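Worked example

This section walks through a single chain of length 97. The input is the sequence exactly as stored; nothing has been trimmed or padded.
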Amino acid sequence: MTAKNIYQDIMKFIKFREAELSSTQELKVFLINYPQFEVTRIGRVGDNYLIFAGQSSQGIHTTLLLPAEAQPLNLVTVDLSDQPDIRPNRIGFLEHS
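Given that input, the structure is written out below as tokens.
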């Protein structure tokens, strides 16, 4: 499977899950192999690499460049209704050829 195929599959699944969220919920995405790393953007470089950008648990902005292979994800729905000043974020996607 190429990075493009994996990227498209991940993008479809996350967009499907985000469409199910209420206006007071957001989806948090974590890589199973890096559980302290919250993914905020996903992309690819050609057909060989996937890009996962986000923040570590220490708040450090990090970008991971991983080989094009299936990446197990943990998708967590967070309810923000008790935090009225916070608007839900959606996962951003990057595509590089």
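What to look for: The longest strand covers residues 34-45.
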